Amino acid sequence: MTTPHTASPLSPVGAHVPVSGGIATRGLAYAAAVRAETIQVFVSNPRSWSRGPGNPAEDAALRENSALPLFIHAPYLINLGTPYQETATRSAASLEHALLRGEEIQAGGVVVHTGSAVRDGRREGLRRMRERLLAVLERLSPSSPPVLLEPMAGQGGALCATVDDVAEYLDMLEWHPKLRVCLDTAHSFAAGHDISTAPGMRAMLDRFGETVGADRLELVHANDSKAQCASNKDLHQNIGAGRIGAAPFAELFRHPVSSGVPVIVETPGPETPHAADVNTLRRLRTLGHTASRERGSAGWSAAPSPQAPATAAEPVGAPAR
Ligand SMILES: [Zn+2]
Questions:
Q1: Could you list which residues have their CB under 5 Å from ion ligand 1?
Q2: Which parts are annotated binding residues?
Q3: Mean pLDDT (whole number) for 248-254
Q4: How many domains does the chain have?
Q5: In terms of residue numbers, what domain contains 290?
Q6: Which whole number is the average pLDDT over 140-152?
Q7: E strand or H helix at 183, and its extent?
């Protein structure tokens, strides 16, 4: 069976870009240097609770000079599952700030980590998260960008790491219409999804389609992993230089659940390695679509058979392990 190819859209491929020096001045220059088709930014220091007001001139320049799909990553400190009230209050304020900035710069979504129970167990952590996140969602203006929940690698007390966890997490939040998902390939791998082969990547995306639904996937963080599968360690690596390898990403571009969804790298930078990662992914995108057209449901594997089209197998080469 051959999937009708022309109907499946191409995912834009881009990078998380630095914005010190201005979200437009620096961010767009960096985006151009790495040939990003989509970008992600921080709107405040990701390791602090600071809430910068933004620079209206830079915001205006960004909107005037760029049509790239744009996403915000909220600070890492945010944890809506925390047992500590002060952290909870700051987390909600920090997320609301990022969402407000998202509205100002017309972001397509605000990525936030799904959090940790810290102590007293996942069930209690989920209960606290539910109460606090629903309160934030209820206060959102209708023109706010959606909240993109990013599952974690499964480290200590994580509330959400695997695809099945995502379904449970969304269920706790009553499948609120302002919620979407940002899947990070390094996190999924560390959480136990062995996506280091095309069938493994396909199995994870199939599961996502079944339990969460393709319409909830808004963004993918495409990162290779320095850490092993199921290690629960969050260690990003450049595409093809880690334990996932480059090849399975072709399946990501091909699969109906993720095809057309923007893909952002958060790998070690700066410009030269980011440009290489974006370029590698763009070639895998072509390959993924070529494979889906030429080989139908047989897909494309990390170790192409000798019968595989030579033109399709050559540009990427064997993934470095
Ligand atoms: Zn990520």
A1: 184, 221, 266
A2: 73, 113, 150, 184, 187, 221, 234, 236, 266
A3: 97
A4: 1
A5: 13-313
A6: 97
A7: strand 179-184
